[in-house]
Each structure stands twice: as structure tokens, then as C-alpha cells.
Specification:
By secondary structure, this protein is of the alpha+beta class. It folds into two domains: about 70 residues; about 80 residues, no CATH class. About 15% of the residues lie in helices and about 40% in strands. It is built from two helices and seven strands, in the order E-E-H-E-E-E-H-E-E. The protein has a four-stranded antiparallel β-sheet with strand order 5-4-6-7.
Length: about 170
Amino acid sequence: MAFVAKPTITISYSVRDNDGKQSSTEVQIDGATPPANAVGFADALRALIAPLTDGVIVGQNVIIGAYEDAIPVINRSDVEDKGVFIFNTANGLASSIAIPSVAEAVLQANNEDIDLTLAAVGAFVDAFTLGAGTPLVQPANASGGDIVSVKEAYKQNRRSLKGGGTRRKG
């Protein structure tokens, strides 16, 4: 089992019309393209698409993907059980991430709260609050505020296809 790079980089654009509806289109480029060059191409192509639409380009994404090339048999997993982490940020706005199929091993005895004292959980939280990778990169909320601490972490059941979910915690 190993994660391997996808053979292409996906560039997508979101366009909004006068009714507020959105649609998107995407382009694939060679996966060996350096990330900075992919962003440069995406910017250039956005400028070429703009005069071809009566809508407004409201979003651009450059996605460098990878996938598991040998998926193992997975016992006792349920993608509808999410491990939700809610973080405090420097600008006062919350940020969250929901990890599908939260491992039972990281839950406290009540089967609801994530045990923040576990090494694996602590390393994950540290990656958000202190950064990870080389060079060091720290996540931020959607408005750019640095993540500074974890507010809460719990198991939540959310349906995976449509609809919402409810927090199991009382």
C-alpha cells in the first residue's frame, strides 16, 4: 500500500450567474508540472476564460492529488462517523475539520469525545496549531486566521450522501 501521485493536476473554475447560481469547469494538466507553474497556468487560463462567459469567475482551485493504489480490507469502519475537531483561531473565528470513519481507539470511554491526551491525536492537533511539513506550514481558517488551539473534539454521525447529521453528544 502506498499513496501515489495522480497523473494530472486538476484546475477548476467556479462561475456565478446573475441569479446567484454557480457552475464549474475543470482542466487537467500534466501531474509533473511544478506547483508554482500550475498556479501560473491557472491564472493565465482564468484571464482567457473571463471574456468567454457572461458570468463572473468567483473561484479557482489547483488540486494536486494522490490516491491509495492498493486499498486494504477495512474492518469496523463507517464513513458516516466523523471525528470533528473545532479550533480557535487568532482572528476569533472558529475552524473545523471532520475526519471520516473516526477510529474507535481515539474515543474516550463515553464513545463520544475524542481523547486529546492520546499521542496520535496530540500530533494531529499540533500540526494545526504549530504547523507540519518541510518547510513548516500551518493551517488557517477561511479568512486567513492562524489556528491557535483546539476548542473541542467529538464523534458525530453524518450521513455520507445527502442530508445532515446530528451530534451524538447530549
